[in-house]
From TrEMBL:
InterPro entries, sorted: Aldolase_TIM, TIM_sf, TrioseP_Isoase_bac/euk, Triosephosphate_isomerase, Triosephosphate_isomerase_AS
Broad class of enzyme this protein falls into: isomerase
GO cellular component: cytosol
Assigned keywords, A-Z: Cytoplasm, Gluconeogenesis, Glycolysis, Isomerase
Functional description taken from the UniProt entry: Involved in the gluconeogenesis. Catalyzes stereospecifically the conversion of dihydroxyacetone phosphate (DHAP) to D-glyceraldehyde-3-phosphate (G3P).
NCBIfam families: tim
Protein's name according to its UniProt entry: Triosephosphate isomerase
Species in which this protein is naturally found: Syntrophotalea acetylenivorans
Superkingdom classification of source: Bacteria
Assembly behavior: Homodimer.
């Protein structure tokens, strides 16, 4: 059995005080949660305070991004510094990094390797745009992003990597992929991992769905055979919504 992951990407939201308030609510309400892994990724400014606030909690801290080197790179943050401040994971390849900041598959691959080398776990995001889906290129895009993003990794490295399928057309739009669309993409990704690595990697790698995940749709998504949790955006900013998502119901 793959342990589900519910991860909250807070993006560029929450002051330090607001982040501490949200973390306190999550810690109080989710400390007793069993067999589900909870991860939160606040803005960089809140990482150190949240590391302290969550130190006696099973909730793990993640960075939203990283740069694959250290030194004269003004405004960036390295995997080593994320680890030093208390992070145990980092999100890499999010569609907003790809499309707003023009990050390439090759650059994302460098970041994945640097994060793994620093001892961080990686949440590796892939997904197609609406145009690509309408052109029936979904699988082509997912295969290209996965092959290039994971180039040079071995099976052992995959033990610390989680894939997040995020259809770009569903992020922040309120439009969610249907349970069937999401399962189809997740199944394709799992089969692809088997081809790129081996059946053990395919079976054990957790694949999350991201894209307007809400309390109203999590139960249907999580029941799909190849969906192992969610990378939650807007709903992770509201304690009640995120708690309900984390306490999903499986039929």
């Amino acid at each position: 059995m793959r342990t589900p992951i519910i991860a909250g990407n807070w993006k560029l939201n929450k002051t330090v005080d607001e982040a501490l308030g949200l973390a306190k609510a999550l810690k109080e309400q989710l400390n007793d949660l069993k067999n589900v892994e909870i991860i939160v990724a606040p803005p960089f400014t809140a990482l150190a305070p949240l590391a302290e606030a969550l130190k006696d909690s099973p909730i793990l801290l993640a960075g939203q991004n990283c740069y694959p080197a250290e030194g004269a790179y003004t405004g960036e943050i390295s995997p080593t510094l994320l680890r030093d401040v208390g992070c145990r994971a980092v999100i890499i390849g999010h569609s907003e990094r790809r499309h707003l900041f023009a990050e390439t598959d090759e650059f994302i691959n460098q970041k994945i390797k640097a994060a793994l080398a620093a001892g961080l776990r990686v949440i590796f995001c892939i997904g197609e745009t609406l145009t690509e889906r309408n052109e029936n290129r979904t699988f082509e895009v997912l295969e290209s992003q996965t092959r290039n993003g994971l180039s040079g990794l071995d099976s052992a490295s995959m033990n610390r990597l989680t894939v997040a399928y995020e259809p770009v057309w569903a992020i922040g739009t309120g439009q969610t992929a249907s349970n069937e669309q999401a399962q189809e993409a997740h199944h394709f990704i799992r089969e692809l991992l088997g081809n790129l690595f081996d059946s053990s990697v395919a079976e054990n790698t957790r694949i999350l769905y991201g894209g307007s995940v809400k309390p109203e749709n999590i139960d249907g998504l999580i029941c799909q055979a190849d969906i192992d949790g969610a990378l939650v955006g807007g709903a992770s900013l509201k304690a009640g919504d995120f708690i309900r998502i984390a306490r999903f119901k499986q039929s």
